[in-house]
């Protein structure tokens, strides 16, 4: 609690202290990676720390998981078809970039098409919510899943999307997918794995910024803004009603809230940000396919992230995403994971030594390479059984309040 | 618009003309019932478990996948090119029994060790837990299958190849060429419907399960160990999923593959929800409805009347959505259930 | 040693402390009424005995044996029957099937069925009807019948007259009196005169503890020690 005579900026700043730390951590991370790469522990760093490409996935999947948590964790309505909104955002920007959305001229800035796609998802959510919110529990989850599967099957076979709709659609190479202030060129930065802006010798400081790094920061800003909007809503009277619905919907109704419209509002808002996440993903990946946008397993990833990070804590899913992608990274060979590291570290004789008919090499190939889903599944089950509140939720329980409230209070105590 | 009418109306008339040919109707009904039989076996375990325990079991598809692979493994090891059709069918029956026994045991052990400790939490956690276990089962299967040099997807052709020729050949029924397998599936489906019905309606334990589906606490207070019934029913539901998986082993549209873990689950959800979660009768009717809808839309596409490739899948999930909108409790579901 | 003894039983629903130390005893062949206002813990007392809501503190002894910590089905199989509030039929099961569930598997079902059908001819008449289609009175008969066929020596009866027309209540009273010939009974009843008529002794419960007890002989609602707890 801040004392009343304190300047509000100071008290606000202190309340936001953990946020500032997290944002700083994310902002400085690429620089840390760059520095580590020039030290003797470079191979350890690239084996055990998530690479920048994985950090970008953390950003957009984190945002998607946060939006999933916004509805599922705060109102208690499990949105099992959340991928529908992510997919809507992704496909909207891809189709718009191809000039295939009626009424949206080719060359419309990405910032605007992203916003339009999110608005479309908002409207779609209102339509789905209108019928789904008559149901609760398992039935609500199944109905949203049913809608998402219908959209998935449709988009998978819809010839308008591309000549091979099962494989999805791509953004044409010339399209400008920039994040920034629309129509102000100097304040726009193109994102994309291949086509993003890169800068050499920035401000004459001898620092090079790669296309990946540009994408990382540009996406990061959108994710950060989205997070704060959702955070403000959760802390507003609207958010209090959402939580009241989760705790006891009957009581919330009895006190006079029109719970139906609160649920609709929350659902549509979460769909809006899910679509933003989808749009960011499509812009960065240069396209979208049914299986990486509308599919049930995309929702499942968000679910895993939300549970591991802490469902019902808005920032938790981001940490869940970090955990998830970190695991994916060290267990894949795409950017020097654990198996590459072991193969370099261990001498050939060890690698080919047989234990019960299995060489270490076989072991690595069978149990480490690309096996993240297995271990994530096991960790997920352990969390469900033993840490149901997730990482952030458990820390919060331990501290007895939200981290942003508690850390400053603790610091205050130490200062005296 | 008159110009479009000129082309649309003849198309509708032509479609109807072709539809009301005996060969078309025979094809749609026989194939539809064959698919319905498969859907029933895949879904009935899920509905029994939900009815009694209120647990939506997300491992159901993964259990069917295990059944398909275990069944496939036994068949591949015991069948050679020269094996007689009758021997193959007899082996298949043995496989059904073995898989049922194995998976019933596995399902019971799973319920006892992992689900039982979390009954006092909200239903969401049971969904999450079973979902996580499904992921693990799928991944482990992928690892094991790959280590044996078999691709986890597309379906394992070796196992599908153990089907006797009588099932892969087509037979003429009212002028329609229909695969022999469909007749076999229909027979097994009828056996499954009758078997489950007899268990529920003609045994004391079945009576306890029906009573427990309405009010488990009351059943417990009348002296029946409901926790034990949960374990047994979860096991039986899992065993039925395994049998469903074995049925898929010879089906050209499915076959053993890691994809079954999710595909079977989603289709079983559709059937179970359309029929009404927890309703045996509903599952039978919904399986037939979905089976016929599937074969009808497949026919529409195969004849070129509709060119949209995803029509059968879209129709099936569309049925789910329509049912949930107009009658959330499903065809035969109890009304209050929708309020949970 | 009494037939049923509760000593300092404390039971919680989540965090809410419902029974704050209930002590009472019931002798064999007695009918004991638990009275008190809504929400004071009468139903919870019955649920505690059945271990449906296991107490956190205190002891419950039935025929001299501690039953705390047992599973509900074990308590039931020890011979404690339950006729719950709102009857809790298996609505989609027939009358006969409802009775079948209650008869112990090693018991003679036919004999038990004929026994309750002779007591409640209406149940015989509708034996193939689904229970949800019965009238309220018939459902109450069925609930009592279910409590009687399980070889129970103690019957816990919760609000048997609730929501029934006066004429039907008379039938229910007859049924309960018949049932009490063979069993001991603990009765929770809002209808005060009815409770006094049926029971031999009463316990008055308020705020999760016993505040009064004694013989029902000559006790009326005007009794000062009763009135201040029952009137709202």
Fold and architecture overview:
Chain A is mostly helical and 416 residues long. Chain A has 20 helices and eight strands. Chain A has one domain (8-331, 371-415): Orthogonal Bundle (ABC transporter involved in vitamin B12 uptake, BtuC), CATH 1.10.3470. In chain A, the strands form four sheets. Chain A has a two-stranded antiparallel sheet with strand order 1-6. In chain A, strands 2-3 form a two-stranded antiparallel sheet. Chain A has a two-stranded antiparallel ribbon with strand order 4-5. With 340 residues, chain B is mostly helical. Helix content of chain B is 74%, strand content 2%. Chain B has helices at 2-19, 22-53, 60-78, 85-115, 123-147, 157-160, 165-168, 180-202, 204-214, 216-221, 226-248, 260-275, 280-302, 311-326; strands at residues 170-173, 176-179. A two-stranded antiparallel sheet of chain B has the order 1-2. Chain C has one domain (4-230): 3-Layer(aba) Sandwich (Rossmann fold), CATH 3.40.50. A six-stranded mixed β-sheet of chain C has the order 6-7-8-3-9-10, with helices on both faces. A four-stranded antiparallel β-sheet of chain C has the order 2-1-4-5, with helices on one face. In chain C, strand 7 (154-158), helix 7 and strand 8 (184-188) form a beta-alpha-beta unit. In chain C, helix 6 (136-148) packs parallel to helix 7 (166-180). The chains are: A mainly alpha (416), B mainly alpha (340), C alpha/beta (232). Chains A and B meet through helix 7, helix 13 and helix 18 of A and helix 5, helix 12 and helix 14 of B.
